[in-house]
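Technical appendix A lists one of the benchmark inputs used to test multi-chain prediction within the project. The record comprises two sequence entries:
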Amino acid sequence: MTARIIQKLRVAAVAESTPEVRVYTLEHPRKPLLPDWSAGAHVDLRLPDGRMRQYSLCGEPGPQPRWQIAVKRETVGRGGSAWVHDSLAPGTEVQVSAPRNNFPLAAGAVRHVLVGGGIGVTPLLAMARSLAAQGADFTFHLCARSAALAPLLAELRVVCGERLATWFGDEGRRFDAALIGAPEAGVHLYACGPHRLIEAVRAAAAERGWAEAQQHYEVFQPTLDENFKPEPFELRIASTGEVLLVPADRSALDVLRERGFALPSSCELGVCGSCVCGYRDGIVIHRDSVLPVSARQDRMTLCVSRARVSVTVEL
Amino acid sequence: MSNTMAGPTHWDGFEHPAGRVAVGVAGGAGGWRGSLLHIHIAEAASFEMEELAEARCVAGRGIEGDRYFLGTGTYSPKPDVREVTLIEQEALDALARNDPPLQGGPIQLTPELHRRNLTVRGVPLNHLVGRRFQVGEVILRGGRLNFPCKYLEELLGLPVYLPLYNRSGLNCSIERGGIIRPGDAVLPLDA
């Protein structure tokens, strides 16, 4: 788990990218630079009721005076995007965490394939900026209903140039996940967007034998699994030996907090990674969308993941 | 978040197990005169610290507007001495010159980053557990030595845990409240 500083930033500008998407430029009221960040990183916006919402940074990575986030107004969302659209205007103060990157560019890659759908292009735009600046070899597949509804299209065209392939439904062009091609050494795949796009890319990658380590996904929505039936389990605290019961209808995070543990968390949906914790001696049912398979042997996401019978957490 | 629990969880400095023992033991440094350099508060856990030109200290509560006054700090649910925390500028200077060389190189832990409320110069904080002292018109009671936390290291992304060990500052309760400002004199009492 990683704690991050929360800063009170000022909205410097608001621009309409599409009828549904606005780009918010944020700056510190007193400091010339915001914390350093790398492509793929996101920040948390803190809503007035204390809930957090994750937004990828889509401007130029590095230590910068300003950040940009693109926010799509979700009509059936959890209320975060509507609050942003209705409440943030130039001059408004907003509480924003320091960036965290769960979706970094692979170091040492020789080529990159980026697949973005709808608002999912935001972290990928930052990646494209970094890759273009490095002169790296990359392809950007942009999927949207139409050019008019494709967020950040103008920026993507400038940054990617010929490397941008657009797949707009209204032009009858649909992205075929087979376009990711066969896995080659040093090629990395990144996808961010709606669940069905991610699933199509995952399926195509699995079919073609891409290694897990060459595939990178980010989904800011909970994993849909309506058949999952939570069971109660025991949590043993490694430092004290204390045993807490997690009932079927509560999360490990809730139970630990009630017992007085001050634990960081943010999305509480298993996507942001704030509450990730070490564990041992147990079979964990991983239900998050953040931990790579390689980390699941000894790390768990306390907000959504559970255990069979019992688990010892490194607290 | 669970750390927005209501209700005071502050101990008087001299009721803390460390402060209580120290009160009955002779010692401590006298004859010094220090000064208050900076005042910083944050409204909640993890929030960036803000520098104040003036602050109101309230006995039994803390510094007005600070997380430990409001009960919104990382450690607010734990009963402890946290009304006011102090650190020596000299400790920050030592980190900046990598002395002793416990980490890769110098660490610039600026007053805005260390998350203690008061940065003081010329005040032997490690000698003030179980002692009363004055910051401007306010009287503080040294309750226990501050201890570096991994949380700070994570929050800052700086390896400050080991180099802050034994010079992490002092946790105090407020015996007499009032207004403090940078530049105020810090003086021992009863010494």
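The two ends of chain B are 43 Å apart (CA to CA). The first helix of chain B runs from residue 17 to 23. Comparable benchmark entries are summarised in Table A2.
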